[in-house]
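Format notes (please read before filing issues)

Several people have asked whether sequences and structure tokens are stored in separate files. They are not. Every record keeps both together, in the order shown below: the sequence lines, then the token lines. Line labels are part of the format and must not be stripped during preprocessing.
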Amino acid sequence: MDAVTDSQQLARLRIEGMTCAACSARLERVLGRTDGVLSAQVDFASETATVAFQGAPDLPAAVRKAGFEAHPAASDAQQRAEEDARQARTLRRDLALLGLSVALTLPLVVPMVLPVPMAPGWLQAALATGVQGLVGARFYRGAFTALRHGSANMDVLVALGTTAAWGLSSYLLATGDAHLYFEASASVLTLVLLGKHLEARARRATTDALRALTALRPERARLERGDGVVEVPPESVAAGQIVQVLPGERVPVDGEVVEGHSPVDESLLTGESMPVEKAPGSAVTGGSLNGSGRLRVKTSRTGSASSLARIIALVQHAQSRKPAIQAAVDRVSGVFVPSVLVIALLTLVGWSLVAPWDQAILRSVAVLVIACPCALGLATPAALIAGTGAAARAGILIRDADVLERAEGIDVVVFDKTGTLTQGQPRVLERELPEDALRLAAGAQKASEHPLAQAILDAYPGEAPSPIDAKALPGRGLQASVEGQEVLVGSPRLMRERGLPHDAMPGLTTVHVSVDGAYKGRLGIGDSARPEAREALDALGVDAVLLTGDSADAAQKLAEGLGLTEVYAEVLPQDKAAHVEGLVAEGRQVAMVGDGVNDAPALAAATMGIAMGGGSDVAVHTADITLMRDDLRLVPAALEIARATRRTIRQNLFWAFIYNSVGIPLAVAGLLSPAVAGGAMALSSVSVLLNALRLRRWSP
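Then the structure lines:
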């Protein structure tokens, strides 16, 4: 689905009544033809529809027109809890019905595999009729709804097949024939119901990550109002207001700590396993879990603008998007069931010419049962939901399914320097200065607001003295009196003007220090590489490129330390995108990793954009993948999970297509009984889901 503009609105609906991929394809067509609807995507695996629209179309009415029921998708923790309870009730009800169906079917099936006498015909009929009436009712309802709306789905196949087997057996019983096939209709319905139950449980498991995220939303916020504290819904808190967070509570809003110290667990938001210590000035994110201290937090963002809401929206968006391969599968599914009905009819006619008509009916029933396209419909969405959910738990947000298509071909990763490969904070990296001179230099820097001043202050471990008569020397440095001594801290140019040594340190910003006219030494200031940068680059498995606006010396020094050989330095912000486009024009598949506003055009120009989570909002909104914590090791991890998800989709589709490609000819040839066909159909859906669920065990 394309990005939603200001004039468009987006609705997510929970859909009831879908039984296979053909249902979702039909609903998409109906919604797409509804006035005011710009686009619609229906996900059978998560039972949701995502609709972009203008105006006020009656979406529930359109869904009912297609034969289903629509309800607003859960948007907060309470609604999610209610939906979870509803799903749990449905699972329990289906499990009870499955138990009854098994109990009625076993007396029919056991004599087929064990040397025990077969029940009399009248008892077989009673048992099979109970299964046909109790279990078959749901398939009859689904089939009737589909046919009433001019289409066919899995329910049509199951209803036709089992009714034919049951009807044939009833006729043979009435005419005194001893060859009955009640076990075929009963076992098919029981196996299909078993498959649907296992499928529902597995589908629920694939959405665990999203449920875990929505469960992070606290229902109340302790808002300071006047001289007291009142409890209000978090969405009613305005920016700038103060909320209190007690020990053990979840932070209700995004904001900044103004009072208190406490470790905060952000693991479900960022994937970081260790609690992060928070103090006044620290940023906190709504949904994180406060530790042992009491915090007062000044609100910055709430509601849909909060980090948690945006994370949930990104995950929902990714899981509702369909990669190109799924669009092709949906088109196939739309014509699959009618094609199977034709094949079953031809099978019936063909076998009736060369075999008894009861055998012809059973073989056409096997065709109807084996051809149910559940596995095809589940192959892509199940893997997509499991993969994006696993990524979200690790702190990797995949914006949409198209990323999976692009990730597989990535052969070069371009990194910004400052704030991406480096920590984004100037530090003293080299020191040729005595401790006493460093102490005086740090004291002089107390009077400066220059970015390099903090680096010098941080380099001195103790409390530096305060300066007097400090005087800024624009473009050159600072002069101050510290403990009665004249201290000069400045650039090589300042030293040259004073006739003092002024050699620069290659690749670093050099700061020289003199005291009372005597040269004391120099400091090399730079932005140090992230401690995990080398490990992340080694794990990439593809070429890495450094692209930066910094000087060639600084870029080369960093590149040598990290083992990078391809470096583009002194690149203006507006030219970064051109460099990326140049690589793409060479036929390379480029992933761009950045964090700043100036990186946004390059992120958009790349085959895939990856934004560091601590970067600017512009970069995060432009990127295809957002890393929720500033850990470069998540870059190769993001490529890994995207490729693993894509690989799982291909595996699922392969086995689903193979299953139908092999199963239907076998059924046409009379080599599959309806009971075996039903078991194989159920097994195919479950195997696809279990393969997808392997992704839930992935971790970076």
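For reference, the curators noted about this record: The CA atoms of residues 239 and 300 lie 5 Å apart. The chain has 25 helices and 26 strands.
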